[in-house]
Amino acid sequence: MASLGRAGTAAFFLEPSRSCGQPRAAGFCVPVRCRLNCLDLHSRAGEFRFLRAGNGERHMGFTWRDRGTGRVLPAVGRKGAADGAEDGGEDDMGDVDVDGDEVLKATIEKTKRALSVQKSLLEQIVERRKLVSSMKESVIKTGKETVPPNKSDASFSSLSSDTTSGMARNKYKKFSYSTSEAAETLSANTNGAAIKKKFQNEEVEVSGDAKEISMLSSKIESSDDEKKENEDGLLAESSIAESLGLLREPSSKVSQSKAVPSLLPKVSEAFTAKDEQREESEEKSQDDPDDKTDVAPKEEDVKSPPLAGLNVMNVILVAAECAPWSKTGGLGDVAGALPKALARRGHRVMVVVPRYGNYSGPQEIGLRKRYKVDGQDMEVTYYLTYIDGVDFVFIDSPIFRHRESNIYGGERADILKRMVLLCKAAVEVPWHVPCGGVCYGDGNLVFIANDWHTALLPVYLKAYYRDNGSMKYTRSVLVIHNIAHQGRGPVDEFRIVDLPGHYVDLFRLYDLVGGEHLNIFAAGLKTADRVVTVSHGYSWELKTLEGGWGLHEIINENDWKLRGIVNGIDTEDWNPEVDVHLKSDGYTNYSLETLNMGKPQCKAALQKELGLPVRPEVPVVAFIGRLDHQKGVDIIAEAIPWMVSQDMQLVMLGTGRSDLEDMLRSFQGNHCGKVRSWVGFSVKMAHRITAGADVLLMPSRFEPCGLNQLYAMMYGTIPLVHAVGGLRDTVVPFNPYEESGFGWTFDRAKAGKLIDALRNCFNTFWNYKESWEGLQRRGMLQDLSWDHAAQLYEEVLVAAKYQW
Ligand SMILES: Nc1ncnc2c1ncn2[C@@H]1O[C@H](COP(=O)(O)OP(=O)(O)O[C@H]2O[C@H](CO)[C@@H](O)[C@H](O)[C@H]2O)[C@@H](O)[C@H]1O
């Protein structure tokens, strides 16, 4: 007879069960597995406590699985321990048996039914797979016959503005270099992003097949979903199939894409899938060695789904801004997009940001908490919404309200107070805020803090909790988007930070610029379990005297935990094919196939909207960005006399330092026929300029990653950048001899260098149309999505998890 073991032993699995039919209300339990495989239970949202697995308490909604026998034992709806539980299990087990015979039988029945459904499902999958692979073979055969044997003879010139997608696709086969050459060239892009597969001829030809597979998968998944609802208490068959690697798309992806949160615990689902995967394989290998009929034959061309698998974690990203609700720059974009990519990989993901405005959508959840900030009690309430698999939690407090247009404005001490409140509240969100009915809890949890604004979070996690023995399994990762802003202030502002006196040393820093001062970023870098920055180039620069802005020594000391990961982009938001800002005023959506028609139309619409002469033959050069020293607007100013002497047009969009805003206005005033300056923050204009311009200028003095050059490449707009930080990582210079690369780079932030690069760029624009089109198409063909970066982030999260 199976027994429940002692507390903390590795003898048992705990499974969430749906048999009690209870919703994910506060008061029910979430299982958390510690790394030694002993079990801790969290109970009750709001009052968070650990219970050891063997203390005899029973928790409604869970079953126990004895690892030794694999038997599932119910622990239904009873609370209160059998005292004997601490001593071993027989007493306890007897207790279960007396009450649970009926339930046990029912469970066994249900398990049998689940297995038979699973078996038939697997048979269907095997059948459909055979069908699909035979279709695939025949399509590849046909396709191969149509590929010209000497692909390298063809050139870009053969690409026409043909809008018939089939014809256009055939013409891609006529790229001037072979697939392997192209792959080699493009792999030089240190972004590391996979090149879109349609670039490869074979993939273009089998795309119909891929569609077929995904249709089949989704059919199977939707039938799984139905079954999930019908088979109360049974494990979803789709997770079983998924765990066996039989579905291309994870079922979690399907459920995450639903806008309405499921009533069933997401954590539990993740654990179910995880446990199921392991137990299924254990059962297959140990208990039933002969039964091989259920397992589909391995096919070499079926890749395992890009999911986190056993690394599934709870992730909470905390930031001062998050698009589309609040954004002053790239941080907002990252906070809006990275979490969705992590959720697509199967993680349970939350974003915590201040609620600056009255956003429609997020709903108040009726919870209030109070935190002390600089000696004053501040009450916060929470707003919640669930989008694309991510829980967005907004912290509401009078100190955040109506700041949407001035997030980082005000006195330095006031900004610090806002960030103290954000971090204090955020670190406790996993205890208090039930998302989909259940709090995240603090086991298997990683916070991702961003820039100095939330660098206090790792410090609070350590000082308030981990140094005091709680939140032992919670980790923090700090992302550096821009080291130039550090939260510097006088040391006596330490009182605002509200920590015991001996923590001051984490914050105290001396450098030539600030003398002895309080540095929030420094403390965060020291206490975070891992540090990420947004490109490889920048991770190197940070360690230099010039690039570290006074923090290079701390960064060097913590080099072991630093990693550079190039940002991705939100390919739903920044995609010329579906961009909502290109649907009116003469603009149009376009794709690789319709580039030759769509892009000129957008260019004409932009010229018209800005009151510039509508002339397709002049290059339109654009700048979009925050107006500060970093972005090198003054370098453009120096280059303007030469630029306006050329037959070109310059469009600038930006807001920031008032002297630089005035400078922008003066550009337009002095060169009205050729220059347009838009001073202000306009997401719509940013999209339209990116679509309508031919060239995007980024003469940044330093650029941790840069997103605009990535957006530009997606829109067939050629980046011309100072080769620094992430710009150097992502913009491979154009090589006219090999017809490779994505744009122009210059190696020093000087007007003369910028002019040299522009001269070459204009020359290509005017005289080498085919090369120009090649640049555009190579840029557009890259996969710049967050998916690859999210996978790398996941590696960091896992490293943090196992960091002691
Ligand atoms: N006036 C305006 N109107 C509308 N939109 C505007 C705008 N000015 C800027 N934007 C938008 O803000 C974003 C700017 O992103 P960047 O990455 O270029 O810069 P930022 O320096 O803010 O970010 C920092 O963080 C990001 C994210 O990690 C790093 O890429 C970057 O190098 C680092 O400096 C883009 O989406 C851009 O379109």
Secondary-structure blueprint of this entry?
Blueprint: E1 12-16, E2 30-33, E3 39-43, E4 49-52, E5 62-66, E6 72-75, H1 90-146, H2 165-172, H3 179-187, H4 201-205, H5 207-230, H6 237-243, H7 251-256, H8 266-287, E7 314-318, H9 330-344, E8 348-354, E9 363-373, E10 376-387, E11 390-396, H10 412-432, E12 445-450, H11 456-465, E13 474-480, E14 488-489, H12 494-497, H13 504-507, E15 508-511, E16 515-519, H14 520-527, E17 530-533, H15 536-541, H16 545-548, H17 552-557, E18 562-564, H18 595-610, E19 620-627, H19 633-644, E20 649-656, H20 658-670, E21 675-679, H21 683-692, E22 695-698, H22 708-714, E23 718-722, H23 725-730, E24 744-746, H24 751-767, H25 769-781, H26 786-801
What does this structure look like?
By secondary structure, the chain is α/β, with parallel strands linked by helices. Among the domains are: 309-564, Rossmann fold; 594-782, Rossmann fold (3-Layer(aba) Sandwich), CATH 3.40.50.2000. The protein is 41% helix and 17% strand. The protein contains 26 helices and 24 strands. The strands form 5 sheets. It has a 9-stranded mixed beta sheet with strand order 9-10-11-8-7-12-13-17-18, sandwiched between helices. The chain has a 6-stranded parallel beta sheet with strand order 21-20-19-22-23-24, sandwiched between helices. The longest helix has 57 residues, at 90-146. The model is unreliable at 1-100 and 137-300 (pLDDT under 50).
